[in-house]
Write a structure and sequence with these properties.
The protein is mainly alpha-helical. The protein has 13 helices and no strands.
Amino acid sequence: MLIQLKKSWKQFLSRRTLLKELVVKGIKLKYRRSYLGVLWSLLEPILRTIVYTIVFGTLLGRGGPDYPLFILCGRLLYSYFAASTKAATKSIGKNASLIRKVYVPKYLYPMSSVLSNYVTFLISLIVIIPLAIYGGVSFHLTAFGIIVPLIIILCMSYGVGLILATIGVFFRDIEYIWDVALMVIMYTAAIFYDPSRLIKSGYGWLLELNPLYALIQNFRNCIFGEAMDSQLLLYSAGFSIVVLIVGHLLFYKQQDKFILYI
């Protein structure tokens, strides 16, 4: 196991230039024929937040100038997780012609999909600043703590992406099933509503099972000047480590069979 990890690490270092090119390619393809380009990464979350604030603010009776920021924090993390894992699911099949012609470590395809979405995700975080000012949320040193959930969600997305990419080669319908799963994840991540409402209703276990909720909650805590919840932090970090290990083992075990199915 250790020998394989050491070999994989050396292989990764030797291919980092190729990975960079794949990431850049992914970003360019995402904004191909788009007049707004990367600017859309800033406009899209703001426009969605405005809509969600009007709709859910009315339905749930939640108001206040800080509510848009509350929604935005959850929506940004969820959108990245959904976009990166969906891209990773299709990454092997999408690059089938290249895989047949040239040898490239196959894990680079789901990895580049996750990283290209991560770059645009980091850019979109800029919109937090104007919404924080609008909501009257002052800057706290805890804001620097967002780097922790940002690292965890990257690891989680890559681990889940590896699992989905592997399954996707043999079972193409997984992308449709994952769309349904993402909808469930979204509504149990407390993106639009106060999690205390669900906890008081006796269905708090739905939140506790969702690692993305743990990340979103700690991300919000950092932005709103509160300390991170250690239990939520341990759960999300532990889940990320597990899916990373399972994803790598599953991917490496099955990757030699990919050529027969793509």
